[in-house]
Amino acid sequence: MSYDGWIILTGSLVGISCGMIGCFLILRKMAMLADAISHTVLLGIVGAFLVSHSLQGVNMLIGALIVGLLTAYLVQVLHSSGVQSDAAIGVVFTSLFAVGVILISLFADQVHIDAQHALMGEIAFVPWDVITINGVDIGPKAVYLLGSVLVINLFLIGLFYKEIKVCSFDPQMAVALGFPIMFIHYLLMGMVSISTVASFDAVGAILVVAMLIAPGATAYLLTDRLSVMLGLAAVVGIISAILGYYVAVLFNVSIAGSMAMVVGIIFALTFVFSPIHGLMSKWIMRYHLRNKKFDM
Questions:
Q1: What does DSSP assign to residue 296?
Q2: Which of 33, 234, 289, 296 lies at a 20 to 30 A Cα distance from 261?
Q3: Is 270 exposed, middle or buried (0-12, 13-18, 19+ CB in 10 A)?
Q4: How many Å apart are CA 104 and CA 158, to the nearest integer?
Q5: Distance (Å, rounded) from C-alpha 82 to C-alpha 171?
């Protein structure tokens, strides 16, 4: 595959994985918790390095999973204690992220991890960090890591689809049906965590947050069916990766930043022109209702 192809494939994998998970976060009104986890997993990466002295993907995934679940747990504890959810997210997010930055400064400042790199990433370097077996280049590490996480996410979504769906739309009904609400909650948070850390080195937290929120929000405006919403979110993620790359090449700017900008533009256009929930359709509906009143 060409250099351009590997970059587009990497961005598309991020868009598909994060976009589909983002649908459930949007439905559960937990979008900003994804932002918190995407930053606090930096602490998990640093912790994994300090324990194992390695930046291998499995170690980072385990560290991110632990800290991601810890973030969700602490937010839940504070919210249950009477703290508003947005305030709880803000306190936990800034505290754990700050601890991660401090640990980097103290113990890992000479290692290939830093707060700026985690936030911005550099997808342009992905095609050069490859896996070699018996002297044969089989492709970038990031593609295999992101592909593995996508397969895990698809497997878990398929396995617990009914439970996740009911818990997302009607938590009270889920309780009545005996569904394990807290298990589903932490399952989703774990999926967010591993998806975030798998994308960190390649694209950075900013694009991860954009892909976790914007494709799902865009799909939400286009359909009222969850299965269709998941598919649309994945398609939006892919389109954003492709168009974002060529915009970056055209203007010689950040690739990850361009992908995030494109997905934002797609959401803005959908917000205005969506046939179901768009501003234009609402204006047209109000116009017809007003004319009907006058006719009566």
A1: -
A2: 33
A3: buried
A4: 37
A5: 20
Contact assessment for residue 207 and residue 259, using Cβ atoms and an 8 Å cutoff: yes
Mean pLDDT, consecutive 10-residue segments, the chain of 296 residues?
92 95 92 84 84 75 87 90 89 91 77 56 82 86 92 96 93 90 92 84 81 96 95 97 96 91 96 89 81 62
Out of 1.10.3720.10, 1.10.10.10, 1.10.3470.10, 1.20.1250.20, the CATH code matching 3-295 is 1.10.3470.10
User: Is the separation of the CB atoms in 36 and 92 below 8 Å?
Assistant: yes
Q: What is the DSSP string of 78-111?
A: HHHTT--HHHHHHHHHHHHHHHHHHHHHHH-TTS
Token duo for residue 154? 């698809």
This prediction has a pTM of 0.88
| 8 A C-beta contact, residue 213 and residue 26 | yes
Tokens 């494109």 sit on residue: 262
Q: Is 281 within 8 Å of 274 (Cβ atoms)?
A: yes
| Distances in whole angstroms, Cα of residue 130 to Cα of each of 17, 127, 163 | 21, 7, 38
Give strand ranges (E) for the chain: 130-133, 136-140
Instruction: List the beta bridge partners of residue 133.
Output: 136
- Do residues 193 and 153 lie in contact, with contact meaning Cβ atoms separated by under 8 Å? no
The CA angle 121-88-180, to the nearest 5 degrees, is: 90
Q: Tokens 């095609």 belong to which residue?
A: 127
